[in-house]
Design goal:
- 37% of the residues lie in helices and 13% in strands.
- The longest helix is centred in the N-terminal third of the chain and has 21 residues.
- The strands form three sheets. The protein has a seven-stranded mixed sheet, sandwiched between helices.
- It contains twelve helices and twelve strands.
- Strand 2, helix 4 and strand 3 form a beta-alpha-beta unit.
Length: 375
């Protein structure tokens, strides 16, 4: 097959489709000039709350800040322990540390890449204050089991929804099942902004009030600072542009599902390829991530790259093995997590990936025996 150019993600088709709406939103903000906490912020928060089905939605300046503020607003602090997954972007662990607490990493499920509830229960101690599940790649974690554990042990649940905006679990939006949910609107996300931006969702009035304080230097009333907070307001321009894209996110997520299901069907029977497990209730496929077994992952990635197909490894190093934790978790045994970091490979996916381009990716993977590469 001739070489093609198929990036892991191409945002240009989405921008082209929405350009007129985005331009109109941009000019509205330019015209009124209220660039900090302008009217679009409150309007977007209202629309986001309605979309998610939650009482409060609080815009902040990044997904990382959403995690930190949600943890602190839920009462997590110094010497507390928060149980989470090591198979995630570092912001998950970093936010726990920034809140003054300690991350307790447990293993994951092979088929879903998400935190294993059975491992959570074994890790609970007298210092455990919260559980932070991550809905990795857009697939909801097993929230019923996690919620049961939290209720049993009087723990808070803060959902890391950085990759799962629009994903649902048993009819409920991720981020609305625990005590609070934290979302990222980094440009590559399913609902992506044009820079950094984030959101906290909660039905808890106290968490909402504290989140509002923490995002604005510890105050709700100007010049009346009550606690030590952050400068973490959602920019008006980001809110205006996100409000445009919010109207389309359900359709874009449905497009992602259709593409993912074609991948899954195409990879059936390939000995060295494991596609995401089905059923995939509520999955929004922020990434389409396969497992490449028998040590063939890096060779396959190199082969695809030579044919112009972009891939990414999310994540090549689990959090507990990062340099920042050198010597701290040396004895931690997370066999599934450790193995999957050597197998996972994310393939191109976006709401606008054409069937022709997807077919090229599929054929590039299937060509040869067993997957077109050798160890």
């Amino acid at each position: 097959m001739p070489r093609q150019d198929i990036p892991i993600l191409d945002l240009n088709p989405e921008i082209k489709l929405l350009r007129d709406e985005l331009n109109a939103a941009y000019h509205r903000v330019m015209d009124h000039g209220q660039f900090i906490m302008g009217p679009e912020v409150k309007s977007f928060e209202k629309d986001a709350a309605e979309f998610l089905g939650t009482k409060h939605a609080i815009g902040v300046n990044s997904g990382t800040d959403a995690l930190v503020i949600a943890l602190k607003a839920a009462g997590v602090g110094k010497d507390d322990e928060v149980i989470t997954t090591s198979f995630t972007f570092f912001a998950t662990a970093e936010s726990i540390e920034m809140a003054g607490a300690k991350p307790v990493f447990v293993d994951i499920e092979e088929g879903t890449f998400n935190i294993n509830p059975e491992e959570i229960e074994r890790a609970i101690t007298g210092k455990t204050k919260a559980i932070m599940p991550v809905h990795l790649y857009g697939r909801p974690a097993e929230m019923n089991k996690i919620s049961e554990l939290a209720e049993k042990h009087n723990l808070k649940v803060i959902e890391d929804c950085a990759q799962s905006f629009g994903a649902t679990y048993k009819g409920k939006q991720t981020g609305t099942i625990g005590h609070a949910g934290a979302y990222s609107f980094f440009p590559s996300k399913n609902l992506g902004g044009f820079g950094d931006a984030g959101l906290i969702a909660t039905d808890d009035d106290e968490i909402a009030e504290m989140s509002l304080k923490l995002r604005a230097h510890g105050s709700i009333k100007k010049y009346h600072n009550e606690v030590m907070g952050y400068n973490s307001r959602l920019d008006t321009l980001q809110a205006a542009l996100l409000q445009v894209k919010l109207k389309h996110v359900d359709q874009f997520n449905e497009n992602r599902r259709e593409i993912a299901h074609r991948y899954i069907k195409a990879f059936e029977g390939l000995e060295h390829i494991a596609a995401p497990a089905l059923p995939d209730e509520g999955h929004v496929y922020h990434q389409f991530t396969i497992r490449v077994k028998n040590g063939l992952r890096d060779a396959l990635a190199e082969k695809l790259g030579k044919e112009g197909i972009g891939t990414m490894i999310y994540y090549p190093v689990p959090c507990h093995k990062l340099p920042v934790y050198e010597g701290r978790f040396d004895n931690l045994q997370l066999p599934v997590c450790n193995r999957l970091t050597e197998e996972v490979l994310s393939l191109p996916i976006s709401p606008f990936l054409s069937e022709k381009s997807q077919h090229f990716v599929i054929e590039a993977i299937k060509s040869g025996s067993p997957v077109g590469v050798t160890p």
